[in-house]
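Example for tutorial group B:
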């Protein structure tokens, strides 16, 4: 899990991870693009050279959870690993990239 940053909602239950990058999904385009751009920023790898997101998580599931305009409850956070990093998406669209070790 990522180490607490400025937001105390992020509690840790295991070994702390360093937060490397934070951004907020602004609603323009799918959340998956925000995740890929954040990973690209951290890794300095172009998105076309990274493994597809679907190898780590269902892009459709992420879009169903975070790109919907309905009032359906969204989980407080989703966490997964991709491209050697831990990825956390908060219910408010905050995307956090942490080291995976």
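The residue assignment follows.
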């Amino acid at each position: 899990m990522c180490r607490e940053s400025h937001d105390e909602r992020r509690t840790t239950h295991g070994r702390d991870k360093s937060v490397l990058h934070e951004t907020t999904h602004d609603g323009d385009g799918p959340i998956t693009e925000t995740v890929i751009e954040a990973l690209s920023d951290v890794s300095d790898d172009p998105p076309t050279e990274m493994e597809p997101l679907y190898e780590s998580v269902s892009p459709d599931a992420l879009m169903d959870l975070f790109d919907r305009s309905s009032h359906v409850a969204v989980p407080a956070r989703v966490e997964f690993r991709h491209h050697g990093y831990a990825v956390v998406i908060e219910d408010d669209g905050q995307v956090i990239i942490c080291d995976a070790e």
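The chain has a mean pLDDT of 83. Compare this with the pattern of hydrophobic and polar residues in the output above.
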